[in-house]
UniProtKB/TrEMBL annotation:
InterPro entries: 7TM_chemorcpt. One of its GO terms (biological process) is sensory perception of taste. It is found in: Cell membrane. It comes from the Eukaryota. This is Gustatory receptor. The keyword ATP-binding does not apply. Keywords: Cell membrane, Membrane, Transmembrane, Transmembrane helix. The chain crosses the membrane at residues 58-82, 88-110, 192-220, 273-291, 382-404. It comes from Strigamia maritima.
Amino acid sequence: MHLAVLNSNRMKTSSPVTESIKSCSEYAIRLKSFWSYAFAIFGIDMCKRGQESRKKRIVFIALAITQLFIFFHYISCLIYNFALESTVSGLSFYTGMLACICLSIFNLWTMNRRKVAMTKLLDESIFFLSGHPECTKCLWRYSLIPSIGLFAMTIAEASFSSVEVFTRDNAGIRNLTAMHLFKINFAIEYLYIARILISVEFIVSVLICMGFVNISVWFFNHMCHLVFYRFKHLNMKLEELLRSGKQLSSFDLAEYRAQHQLACQVTEELSCLWSPLIVVWMFGFILGLCFNMKALQVEFRALFLIAYLTDISRQLWLIVGLFKAASLVNVEAHKLAVKLVTFPISQLAFTDADKMEYYFNYLLLSERLVNTRIGINASGLFLLNASSFLSMAGTVLTYVIVLYQSH
């Protein structure tokens, strides 16, 4: 009877723990499945097996060929229209689209080459947070909700543009045909063919190119948040010791420094895997924003104007999200530097050897937190933090003003 009561109590006390582990495992599985399915749409198999399904390989090749076809078509249109019209405003549409397509092609190639290493880093980072179900739940929401929002903006841009093309009069369609189809002269009864060709190409380019860039940038933001939570829990553990009033032991300092070093190695690995992409993303977004804003000088109809504003909002969202996620890592990695450096060290009854070990670990940890630049870097050029974001924003604003003054 007594054993039965004990077993019953044990089951009651262990049920919350079991539910917590189950909840954590559920959201961890959801996270992995979400990114696996998201990239599978574009033919990229996010797995560590080193084997790739034939179906996904066919999808990847088809999308790569489609993007290359769109790229060569738009660059041909740019050259053709440049020979007829040399104004910046008239060519802003093709320049902005070319920037997006080039960005997507390089993105697709790089992600496909590094998919195994990226997936391994994703699995290891999620496994590290396996004991914190509240974090995996927050990360699941952070991955799902913005991805749906970005996808909705992409769908809206494609829809507004296609509706604009189909509702144009014959004179407007002939103007678009002159720009997109090298002045092919369609008879009035066949202008619907031009409408279909122009709309389909634009919808495909938006959904494939912009859609893949959206999901890739947000995947990087998700990885930054995984690293951020790693630093955050490490800092929370040290803060609890500091608030308790206990003297940090040499073992505490050595353990914190070792765990901090592991988190820094993960941050460095994240930077190395995404460094070329980060630079290309920055350049592509800045170029696209500049020429999209320049294109607003042209008198567009309402639906085209909404499509342009949607695209500008989408790119601004991606840039701000990218810098914000990387900045969180940078801030959290240095958060306890001042507290640790100013923490009073009491004179304990240490032996000389123990004191030497204690001060050695303390100095090494303080040096790491104060004098080491920890964060996501763009190919070693600069750290992604608040100051670099303000510098980039100033540069974009300067070039937008220059483009608006040009003709």
